[in-house]
Design brief:
The protein is α/β, with parallel strands linked by helices. It has 12 helices and 15 strands. The chain is 31% helix and 24% strand. A hairpin with a 4-residue loop joins strand 10 and strand 11. Helix 4 runs parallel beside helix 5, helix 5 runs antiparallel to helix 12 and helix 9 crosses helix 12. The longest helix is centred in the last third of the chain and has 20 residues.
Length: 370
Amino acid sequence: MAPSNKFNVGIIGYGLSAKVFQIPFVALTESLVLHSIVQRSPSPGNSAPEDHPSVKHFTSIELMLADPDVHVIIISTPPNTHFETARDALRSGKHVLVEKPFVPTSAQAEELAALAAEKKRVLCVYQNRRWDSDFLTVQKLMREGTLGRIVEFETHFDRFRLEKPTTWKGQLSMDQAGGVLYDLGTHLLDQVFVLFGMPSSVSAKFLDQREGRIVTGGSDESQQPDSIAAVLTYADTGLLVHVRISVVSVETKQPRFRVRGTKGSYQKAFLDPQEDQLRGGMAATDARFGKEDESRYGRLCYVTEDGKIEEKVYPTVEPETYIKIFEGFAKALETGNEDDIPVPASQAAKVLRIIEALRESAKTGRDVAP
């Protein structure tokens, strides 16, 4: 058993996610201790043993899972490996944090959630963008009723990227949890789920904007999308949610959120800065981490008491930063309470149901209930 306040963490995989989004935050979380890393083939300039000489190193997952001193597994490998690795880790009695996209199907997600419950282990999905400051700003506006009843919600992940990715993001099919819908769409749909829950129906068009084609999302490589246009309908409130992902967006201020309500509207451009800051080498302990320049703040239009419409700059909230998902995960490890898990597998399974419904809609041209 792990000590009541310390949990040894083993990380499987040593790519960008492990180096930038996992290991630095494990080090900042009081009850988590980096114990070991699996890297199958260390090489000069990309070597976990060289970068972290004081921890234990494995070249196989099986050896790490057999180590009784490892209490927690963080899975930071391509998504087509996540299901089997998480299943084996849970069967080995480990707690598990899985990088997104979680697994390819909702059925697999539900199976893992049931296994975690059976083994009395914590299973969490790394949906870090729940702690983007722009998303927290939207939550604040909605929580305080500033916008009134929301009637239309747009969420974007637009970029100008004419070259296809050479990583799993561009090489794995959607059946393997690859591609833009699982990579970026998972973030947007998870945030929509947090705000509004499950939609009553969805519709989607899948696009290959690089080649200028509508695609079906079928198993053939030529049918895999690089861009998405989707609508989620909430029949009980009349709300429409537009989810847009584009690789051909020539903008100096890429749109992020547009929210319309009965009392006001909020518009925000630019992505949360945390990822770029971490990639650029900024430490999560830096006082500037997660903070936006005022020039990137959103704009709020609102109805005054005398019925006029006015506009003002609306500051982005103070960042909570991605440390929160690790702190919440650590708390769940200590309490064993599913309510403390920051992103439970059961919620990730529902987001995957939305993804599966979008795929069916793009293939059939019909609205689909998730």
